[in-house]
Amino acid sequence: QDLYDLATQEPHQQVRITAIRQLSYRGGPESLKILQKLYPTEKDLVVKLNIAREMGRYGDDSGRAGALAALKDNSWKIREGAADALGMAGNVRDLMLVQSVHADANEHPLVRYAAKKSAQEIKFTALPEQERWQFIVEGLSATSPAERKWAIVKLRNMNTPRARQILEDTAAKTAHPASSSARAALLWLEKET
Hints:
It is built from twelve helices and no strands. With 193 residues, it is mostly helical.
């Protein structure tokens, strides 16, 4: 109830966003129901896009239409949130769109970065289960720092024995481009447990 109150009544935008993400990380059908209840009534577009992002984490793309519209907003912060929300929804129909946002040299760098991460997330979601691990491992050696970071964060958030093993193997290879990031992810996981 405390997180719900913060998400709905707190005047500070960032506190509300943090409460929404914490609600989401708790997991389960109850969290999704709360997010679905918050989404249609939220007035602040940045907060609303964060709710859409977190609903996308559960496979609910009901915030997709709002995110698509927000990609045309004048504010780069709104466009960044929209690109991020589309990636979390993981809808293959949006892959070409987020790739075009990433390729747009006139777009704000943080919007392009969010679009790049979203493209990775959409590609990952579209793969059959057995190919997802290989996609992550390939991402660790990508030339793009954004793709390497995506793979590290994905492994960290998965926090399974296999994900930890991949992080440990990557961290042990000092010449690997993602070695230091893998060590940092392992330290983060140790603190969380």
